[in-house]
Inverse folding.
């Protein structure tokens, strides 16, 4: 089975820790996709999803710490974006658990959430990394 999300070098910020974490999030999402497509029981899907969410929250903390270190001027806005993303993910998870959305809707949401956040928000940090 091919990857649901393909990691591209253009997603790299230039900070090895953050880049590794982004790659791990992609791996976790691909693993979730594989398990969903292979008919894995919902209990296992839920466990994988919780691990992915917890990892993302830890990643956000690390990313915010980096932004503090480099004096990133958009830190408050970025922190609010992280908070919004976590709320959205839990809301989508709730809707999934109540069968209001499908497993595939959940996958599409998570893919868009991850890739759009990296491309729209995180890549702006790259400019500041290059000046410090």
């Amino acid at each position: 089975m091919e990857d649901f999300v393909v990691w591209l070098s253009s997603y790299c910020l230039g900070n090895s820790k953050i880049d590794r974490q982004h790659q791990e999030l992609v791996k976790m999402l691909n693993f979730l996709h594989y398990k969903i497509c292979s008919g894995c029981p919902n209990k296992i899907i839920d466990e994988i999803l919780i691990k992915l969410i917890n990892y993302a929250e830890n990643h956000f903390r690390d990313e915010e710490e980096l932004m503090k270190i480099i004096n990133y001027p958009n830190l408050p806005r970025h922190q609010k974006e992280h908070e919004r993303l976590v709320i959205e993910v839990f809301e989508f998870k709730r809707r999934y658990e109540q069968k209001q959305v499908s497993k595939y809707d959940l996958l599409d949401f998570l893919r868009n959430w991850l890739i759009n956040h990296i491309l729209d928000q995180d890549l702006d940090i790259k400019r500041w990394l290059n000046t410090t």
